[in-house]
Specification:
Strands 11, 12, 13, 14, 15, 16, 17 and 18 form an 8-stranded antiparallel β-sheet that branches. By secondary structure, the chain is of the alpha+beta class. It contains 11 helices and 33 strands. The longest helix is centred in the first third of the chain and has 23 residues.
């Protein structure tokens, strides 16, 4: 027994080392972390002026607006840069005690974005004049712009602009839809600056032509002390306001509802959001056209070209824009982890929810937990890396609703018509005998395959098959310990497709079991499948991952590019999968599954129901 324990420790250690290596190679560094903000020295010069206009944003109710920044600097340099701070006052007077105890910084909060001056003003070092354009979103506080010399590693504060603000910084914003715990329930989560003692949050909603209904909302907040470490607890911290969730119940199937969020103020007036609409879910098992988008590892990018994300998630805008463009042609979205890559720079959660608002306000936006949401040493995560930047899952659990029994344990099941989804949490132990393993088996076993023939498993890390180069080096072509125990569940319950992220590319396998293709067909599957098709859809936007040069015999299609997957169930017997590139929205890989109910029931290797010869 002791020897077995030693072996297990060695395996876990090697797995941890492998994943640390995976995190470092090719995955990029949070750009805001490159700023040595606490090392800033003050070098204010009256000769330098920086002005921002307009001073008041959102006068027509907008939650996004372009700002022009005019800079005059008689002593310009190549490495001058302009940062956006919010709240506008960022001097040492706002530093919490724990930061001051470490050292005495002039600045103890990171900017929310930045640009090198010369990047958009090529003559700046000659003329000392520049005009920069920033696109700001309403983040519940005012803004200022600061000029720094000395680059990012040795910043010197040269000048600070006037303050600007949105007309209503507390406005309810960025709604995120998600399936509730029953098929006829939709949840709406949004962000505002209204505390519950100054305004009562609710959602007003109705079907077209029907009487409007008001549903109350619960309110959550996150404080600095709930962060597990730095930078989330120190320079990356920013107050995220109030997170509200309302539960719309007893919805009619396939019906269009309009809604808007409101806050009832003490004087009787209401602060309203914009109006939105969504289509409710079909009844489980309903035979109709049903379409699903799935991807992972998208991250975010800034439409104003701000440097902090220009090279970090280069495909994020293309993926987002394609999904917005195609919004009428799908019904639900799954983003399976590594959503924002905020890595402890908390302001990025607002920016991410603003980026996906056109999608998440219209269709259910279901999420999974990834290493960049959850992982932190000694915090209960399975992996002991610092990939979350100290967030340790708190913001992912709070900013987005999932129908889990315990949102800190990010595993859950959800239905959409003929689909049954089992979403695992790879940042908690999933191995045989664990609480999560029992959930996964129960989720798979609970699918009524006559009503819901399409059984889908999804998780962030590639627990199935991937020919990513560093998986190949380990020889297993999987996340360490990934398939142990799980593959017999996939086989026993005849999972159709298992989707994974974490690896930033696209790859599809044959129907496979225990490293062997169990079906010789490549793209048109019919009858009994005999195994599960594994699909990596981690090319949502972040740095791409290299494949191994040798292509395994189970790998049917690989693509080193950005893209997403789409499932279309035409009826109980016919399913189409398509892989689309984010650059053009065209289909580059696809397969179909055609079968009858008896094919789902048929005996497969290691997946046969017990029988008897007794009459």
């Amino acid at each position: 027994m002791e020897q077995g324990c030693r072996c297990l420790k060695v395996v876990l250690c090697l797995a941890s080392l492998s994943l640390v290596s995976a995190h470092v190679i090719g995955y990029g560094e949070q750009p805001l972390s490159k700023i040595a903000i606490q090392m800033t020295t003050t070098a204010l010069r009256k000769s330098v002026s920086i002005q921002a206009n307009p001073v008041v944003l959102g006068l027509q109710g907008e939650d996004t607006e372009w700002v022009t920044v005019n800079l005059v600097n008689p002593n310009p340099s190549e490495d001058d840069w302009v940062a956006v701070f919010s709240p506008a006052n960022f001097n040492s007077s706002i530093c919490p005690p724990e930061i001051i105890e470490e050292q005495a910084p002039h600045i103890c909060t990171s900017p929310i974005k930045f640009k090198y001056v010369k990047s958009s003003n090529s003559e700046y070092t000659k003329t000392g004049k520049a005009v920069l354009k920033f696109r700001l979103i309403n983040q519940r506080a005012d803004f200022s712009f600061a000029v720094f010399s000395g680059g990012l590693s040795n910043p010197k504060l040269v000048a600070v602009s006037n303050y600007i603000t949105f007309a209503n910084p507390k406005a309810p914003l960025y709604p995120r839809l998600a399936n509730g715990k029953s098929w006829d329930e939709m949840t709406i989560t949004w962000t505002s600056g209204y505390a519950i003692d100054e305004a009562v949050p609710f959602v007003e909603w109705s079907m077209k032509g029907e009487t409007k209904t008001r549903s109350p909302a619960g309110t959550l907040t996150v404080d600095r002390n709930s962060m597990c470490g730095s930078p989330a607890r120190t320079i990356g911290w920013r107050d995220q306001g109030f997170i509200h969730t309302s539960f719309l119940k007893n919805l009619w199937p396939n019906s269009v509802y309009s809604y808007r969020m409101g806050h009832l103020l003490s004087n009787g007036s209401v602060a309203w959001s914009k109006s939105y609409s969504f289509k409710s879910s079909p009844y489980p098992g309903q035979d109709s056209l049903q379409r699903v988008i799935i991807f992972g590892d998208m991250g975010k990018a800034e439409r104003d070209g701000s440097y902090e994300y220009s090279d970090y998630q280069p495909g994020a805008l293309n993926t987002t824009d394609q999904l917005i463009k195609d919004l009428d042609n799908y019904d639900i979205v799954f983003n399976i982890g590594d959503m924002t890559y905020s890595n402890g720079y908390v302001s990025q959660w607002d920016q991410f929810t603003a980026l996906v608002e056109p999608i998440a306000s219209t269709v259910p936006y279901m999420v999974a937990s990834g290493n960049h949401e959850r992982d932190w040493p000694d915090s209960g995560s399975f992996y002991q890396t610092k990939d979350s930047g100290g967030e340790c899952g708190v913001f992912a659990e709070t900013m987005f609703y999932v129908p889990a029994e315990n949102r800190a344990k990010f595993w859950y099941s959800t239905d959409y018509g003929m689909f049954h989804f089992c979403i695992a949490d790879t940042e908690h132990d999933w191995r045989e005998g664990t609480e999560q393993y029992k959930f996964i088996e129960h989720c798979l076993a609970s699918a009524d395959r006559r009503k819901q023939p399409w059984l889908i498993f999804a998780s962030h890390r590639a627990l199935g098959y991937s020919s990513r180069d560093w998986y190949a080096e380990g020889g297993a072509f999987e996340d360490p310990m990934g398939r142990v125990g799980l593959q017999k569940l996939w086989q026993k319950y005849r999972v159709d497709i298992a989707f994974f992220g974490h690896v930033h590319n696209y790859e599809r396998t044959c129907p496979i079991y225990q490293n062997q293709c169990v079906n010789s067909e490549k793209s048109r599957y019919s009858g009994t499948m005999n195994g599960t098709i594994h699909v990596v859809v981690g090319g949502g936007g972040s740095h791409l991952s290299e494949f191994t040069t040798a292509i395994p015999n189970w790998s049917i299609y690989r693509d080193y590019d950005y893209g997403f997957g789409k499932l279309t169930a035409f009826n109980h017997s016919y399913l189409l999968f398509e892989y689309k590139k984010s650059s053009d929205g065209n289909v580059y890989d696809s397969f179909t599954i055609s079968r009858e109910y008896k094919d789902v029931l048929a005996c497969v290797h290691d997946g046969c129901e017990p029988t008897t010869l007794a009459s």
